[in-house]
Amino acid sequence: KSHPVIVRESVRFVAEQDSLNASVLEPDATVEAPEFDLFVKEVAKEMTVKAGQKCTAIRRAFVPAKLLDAVQAALIARLEKVTIGDPHDEATRMGALVSVGQRQDVRAKIKEIGADAAIVHGDPNAAPVNEKGAFMSPVLLRCERPWEARAVHDVEAFGPVSTLMPYHDAADVIALANRGKGSLVMSAFTYDTEFARELVLGSGSFHGRVAFIDRDSANESTGHGSPMPH
């Protein structure tokens, strides 16, 4: 984008760059609500599709403080079922990272994020298949105090990594989502249209796309991380 010809000739240039995309579970959610299960499935999917190597992947997962433990347990249960290995094997659900060098970078970034958060699932330093391939397990972190944290809002581990964080109310999660300093996409799992309205008005300008997913739209939704041409 800084190439002299691009600058001199005013060439139209579009770059899709990494960002700390957020996903939000609505404040009034319950464990029994369909949106709870949809949220857990989507976070796990975004962590493991393409081994998390997507610029639209969910990096920050915000949940009501009262549901932090329940969401963590549900996510871990789902991630434990992910089979890592050769993509040619039909049983495989997640392959390797693009290179050993990329895995080293992801491990380094997890260490940075670790200043703010604790790993609650996965071991970034283990090789779940073999040392030759760039395999690593999905890594879920938990940040208890997102307002006191820095790295979780500044550093992206470009791999199967996401951080779970609690919030207290709509105003709180809007401000936390915006701490990512802008992202490609944010998703919200809510059946509450008033909360959806608050989220758009408070965070819309910080996100290239806001995806709303609920019990009625889920079957037709392309999901959090599917880039749309428009």
Commentary on this structure:
The protein is α/β, with parallel strands linked by helices. Helix content is 30%, strand content 18%. It has seven helices and seven strands; from the N terminus they run αβαβααββαβαβαβ. It has a seven-stranded mixed β-sheet, with helices on both faces. Strand 6, helix 7 and strand 7 form a beta-alpha-beta unit. The mean pLDDT is 94.
Task: Give a quick set of tags describing it.
230 residues; alpha/beta; 7 helices; 7 strands; 30% helix; globular
> Largest sheet, described in full?
7 strands, mixed
The fraction of residues in strands falls at: 15-25%
Extract low-pLDDT stretches: none
Shape: globular
Which class do the helix and strand fractions yield?
A: alpha/beta
Q: N-to-C SSE series? A: HEHEHHEEHEHEHE
The percent of residues in helical segments reads 25-40%
Count up the helices. 7
The Rg value, from CA coordinates, equals 18 Å
Describe the protein's topology.
Blueprint: H1 4-8, E1 21-25, H2 34-48, E2 58-64, H3 68-79, H4 100-113, E3 118-121, E4 139-142, H5 151-154, E5 161-167, H6 170-178, E6 183-189, H7 193-203, E7 207-213
Parallel strand pairs: 1-2, 1-6, 2-5, 4-5, 6-7
Antiparallel strand pairs: 3-4
Helix pairs in contact: 2-3, 6-7
